User: Fold this.
Amino acid sequence: MKIAMISSECVPYAKTGGLADVVGALPQALAGLGHEVVVILPLYGCIDQEKHRLSPCMEQLGVWMGNTLEWCAVHQATGDGKVPVYFIEHNKYFQRDGLYHDAWFNDYPDNPRRFAFFSRAALQLLRDLYWMPDIVHAHDWQAATAVAYLKVWHWNDPLLAKAAGILTIHNLAYQGVYGTEHYDYSGLRWEHFKPDIFEDHGRVNYLKGGIHFADRVNTVSPTYAKETLSGPLSCGLAPFLSAKGDRYLGILNGVDYARWSPGNDRYLPLPYSADDLAGKAAAKELLQRTLALAVDPTVPVIGIVSRFVAQKGLDVVASALDRILADMVVQFAVLGAGDKVLEQYYGALAARYPGRVGAYIGYSDELSHIIEGGSDLFLMPSQYEPCGLNQIYSLRYGTLPIVRATGGLEDTVEQYDEKTGAGTGFKFQYLSPEAVYDTVGWAVSTWYDRPAHFAAMRREAMAKDFSWEESAKRYVELYRRALEDKKP
Ligand code: ADP
Assistant:
């Protein structure tokens, strides 16, 4: 199959969250299964063209947006050679430091134009390359209009008409809802501006329109797929997702063990495995030194690596932390950025609890690896979590996750059984400061009082395999079904 992935993020070029990890790894896994894949990204100002060896590929690509013909250029990187990555260069829209917002987390006001343009340009690029896809696979609201354009503008196009449109939703809370003043520019039709397609209380909802037009829609874990068919986690889209019937489902993300594995992690002082944890002890010491924690192998370190947004439950952790630190002998290693109130709180915490809390407010790939490797436990109390990658990384690093049982956290972490010592982590149901306190207490008491259980869980966690191969096979199955439906 020939598969074109259209996404606003992809490692190692541009990343704000898990979407980038998925789009960095899934195409490789699909290529490994024998499929031909290309990835299309915007050329953001923050992408280091020299480092990633981008080369010009097309000087002029004309893209019709409403009545405006926009001209852009295209660059290419070959990465590891298996999957070509194309970058749409349009400085008016992408020559900025941020992907979606400025340094104060204010959304760029022209985001609806930027990403409608990007989605349309991606399809135009396939045409100009004479690259005939079987599958156009769009990710999140930023690329959702691509599956709509496919149906609205390319239904009769000899190159694109046969392609099935797949939409993967990585987080239903981000839908791309904007005023109608951009609708003409997007080139979408007013006949599609109605409540079951693009209209959302008088505004334009890109994700909703994408859901309507996609041949198949999926999200990134089976439990989150169920959770989003009703109730608050559907963020208002339950009727539209339900209407898809079995054309909406959850496929668990895999992880890229080439990047996230203690046996070959370039940021860790020594490689380690379940049979030889000396490298984990060295990573812990490095972490404690890096974040100015007291260097002590006997105290459990709880890691947190997160975007600071309401979804992640870190405000609730904040309400429990003073009690946890008063009652338990434990350390915290925190890495995150986002919400300014949380940034201030966690930044100041390190000064309030010197040697016991270490925090770095900002973005650091290196520190995120050191926290995964050097911590003993990993706290992820999300209100909701479409899949979550950090808890899966934690399992592989023998860093037992403490999670709320929701979405992908529920699907990937197995509850500790205090009778047998089985399980891979510690789960709780309802997000409250008491639940966080109790579950952290349960994990910490397991560290001190039942070290044999802790060691057995670590071994079990490290043996879990969430590699992309299985998930990629499910995507192939999804593509096949979508193509079968399109047969006359
Ligand atoms: P989400 O996509 O909601 O942010 P995931 O758990 O799926 O959550 O993925 C988060 C990814 O982003 C992980 O790879 C994690 O290591 C990374 N990440 C999040 N915040 C930071 C940060 N401040 N510094 C470095 N990496 C981060």
User: Anything to note?
Assistant: The domain at 278-462 is CATH 3.40.50.2000 (Rossmann fold). The pocket of adenosine-5'-diphosphate is lined by residues 17-18, 21, 305-307, 335-337, 363-365, 368, 387-390 (CB under 6 Å). The chain has two domains: 2-254+468-486, 278-462. The chain is about 40% helix and 20% strand.
